[in-house]
Amino acid sequence: MNANALYLIADEYLQAVNALSDLDLPDEVVADTLESLQYPLEQKATNVAMFVRNLEATAEAIKEAESEMAKRRKALESRAANVREYLKTNMIRAGISKIECPLFKLAIRDNPPSVVIDGVVPAEFMRQPEPPPPAPDKKAISEALKAGQHVPGAHITRTQRLEIK
């Protein structure tokens, strides 16, 4: 267990606040004592905040790298598809349907028949997508609750966040 852990420093500070409030000491002594204990807490909190910023920066760098890698992957996939089509076209043009080498075999094959849509298709052949399931409209619920209306199964809550600027 690390004696410099933030939660231990915070516990120590709270214990000092409670202990000092029980004693009959001048306000100046209490303030000085709490101020001396507050410095390590602020230092540790600052260090933890710097660590948070470092983690966020690393996560953002990874996110950017993922985006760049996805672009590169798509470009390579597109180029491979174009070169594949180029190879197929030229094999067909030359009348070659099969090439064998030690690494792999190339062969021109017929695809299974596929349907091509040329115009308007009758309704009986149309698929109907499933509608999305109903979901609570949080904005409408919020407005109703703020207006004083009772909404069963819902309430407004306020949470807290740590802002590091």
Write structural notes for this entry.
The chain is mostly helical and 165 residues long. 57% of the residues lie in helices and 4% in strands. It has three helices and two strands, in the order H-H-E-E-H. A two-stranded antiparallel sheet has the order 1-2. Helix 1 (6-22) packs antiparallel against helix 2. The radius of gyration is 34 Å and the shape is elongated. 0% of the residues are buried. The mean pLDDT is 89.
N-to-C SSE string, H for helix and E for strand = HHEEH
- As a percent range, the share of strand residues is under 5%
First-residue to last-residue Cα separation: 30 Å
Radius of gyration: 34 Å
The beta-strand count equals 2
Write the layout of secondary structure elements.
Elements: H1 6-22, H2 27-94, E1 98-100, E2 105-107, H3 138-146
Antiparallel strand pairs: 1-2
Helix pairs in contact: 1-2
Quick overview of this protein structure:
The protein is mainly α. Helix content is 57%, strand content 4%.
What labels describe this entry?
3 helices; single chain; two-stranded antiparallel ribbon; mainly alpha; about 55% helix; about 160 residues
